[in-house]
Design a protein that fits this description.
Blueprint (H helix, E strand, L loop, with lengths): L8 H14 L9 E4 L5 H10 L7 E4 L20 E7 L3 H6 L2 H14 L6 E3 L3 E4 L2 E12 L4 E9 L10 H4 L5 H4 L7 H20 L4 H9 L7 E7 L2 E10 L5 E4 L6 E4 L3 E5 L3
Parallel strand pairs: 1-2
Antiparallel strand pairs: 2-3, 3-7, 4-5, 5-6, 6-7, 8-9, 8-12, 9-10, 10-11
Helix pairs in contact: 1-7, 4-7
Length: 275
Amino acid sequence: MTEALPLDEAKARSAHEAALASARFPVSDPQIEVHASIGSTNDRAKELAAAGAPEGSMVVSLAQESGRGRRGRAWSSPSGGLYFSLLLRPDDAMLRRLPVTLLGGLAAVQTLEEHDVPATLKWPNDVHVNGRKVAGILGEMDRDEVGHRLVLGVGINVATDLSALPPEVAELATSVAAVRGGEAPPPEVLLESFLAHFFGHYGAIRRGGGATILAMASARMPLLGQPITVRLSPEKRVSGIASGLSATGGLVLEHEDGQRREVLLAGEVEEVRAK
């Protein structure tokens, strides 16, 4: 099994603070935790939120014992990965502009691009390399007496031993090290890059922006322009041409009869068929 890469807590804290400052993101004394292993970074971030942790707080780990992905699926999180969760409090105006999970997916792709990993976005927020998943984003939101409370979880297969994954997962997964011929940057380097990109985007949305971010995400989404099938629920699927992203990050689907189009706000792309 792959050895856990070292994670320097001081460097993680410094990168986090620098990202918040450069994005003009005002935070008062965010809480930052770094773990070798934890049950779930999202669950721990929720506990911190319930105890009064401010927006911008973060939980980081190199392994998870009970990680999870979208739609309640288990997210296999063995040693050698990088898993972290950010506590955010987007207001109603921000939530109407762009999904925060899309910002997370874009930041992950940009991070991997910087380290010679040709990553792409699969709507709504999975990160792939050559059709294999290298990172995933999970947003979990609720409300408290203050307002919206969103925990954004990010999982990146850094030096993950793919043979340690369940067989049905391993055949669809890859890692940064696998793409780079066995070498991967230290996890705090990837974390630093992600935080800089993410809080840059988050700060821009907070200040009313979004069009440039949407264009950057669209440019990294090769399924656009292709015939696809999207699963909306266990019983319902819809097919058509993925013609683009809406102004609020939804997937614009043109039906194959050429007569209708709709904007999908949630769903899972099950199939992309080459033209």
